[in-house]
Design brief:
By secondary structure, the protein is of the alpha/beta class. Helix content is 29%, strand content 21%.
Length: 199
């Protein structure tokens, strides 16, 4: 499996640190050329490789960690999203509901990436917490996952386990997934809930 993180902001960097901690190769890209983020990638670790946006989007699992409306620029970078697993790490806090046509933010992103197998995940924790080691007091930090594609959840959950997290499947995007999606100027119930699972 090939992995990529699109976005080099605080959340993208937190995810890159998670991969680096476990020595898992990951491509990082943004709308800037790879040489612009090369020093950042190098500072995180040797398994974090700067790539062009087009190259990074060839990965099997892509983490979309960009400001919400920037997903439209990313959407144009490849001809087809068919079959690609996209983990939506964005938050649409402050985006007026009418701009989302009343839909959950992940549904808006799914519409922009036709054919993609969208999984909402890794978005409920602040960047600083996400960047920390997920092993806490003998347990593992929880990450919530939701998708309308049941089969897409499994490889993302397996990767979350590899990264040291405890994945929790919330079900469909408009059901359990709605608990981790900002609505207008309101954070929903599971946002910022830093939960630990003890095995």
């Amino acid at each position: 499996m090939r992995y990529a993180i699109i976005g080099a902001g605080q959340i993208g960097q937190a995810l890159a640190h998670a991969f680096a901690r476990k020595n898992i190769d990951v491509a990082v890209a943004s709308t800037r050329p790879p040489e612009a983020i090369a020093p950042l990638a190098k500072s995180i670790g040797p398994t974090v490789a700067p790539r062009s946006l087009k190259d990074a989007l060839e990965a099997d699992i892509v983490f979309l960690a960009v400001p919400f409306w920037s997903h439209r620029d990313v959407a144009k970078a490849v001809e087809s999203w068919s079959g690609k697993i996209v983990v939506d790490v964005t938050n649409a806090y402050g985006v007026p509901l009418e701009q989302l046509d009343g839909l959950p933010s992940s549904a808006v992103i799914a519409r922009a990436l036709p054919g993609a197998r969208l999984v909402k995940g890794f978005n409920h924790l602040p960047a600083g917490v996400l960047a920390e080691d997920p092993s806490v007091k003998g347990g593992r930090r929880v990450v919530f996952l939701s998708s309308d594609d049941d089969a897409a959840i499994a490889p993302v959950a397996a990767l979350a386990e590899q990264l040291g997290y405890a994945p929790v499947d919330l079900g469909r995007l408009d059901e359990g997934g709605a608990l981790v999606q900002a609505r207008g100027n309101r954070w929903t119930q599971l946002i910022f809930q830093d939960l630990i699972k003890f095995d």
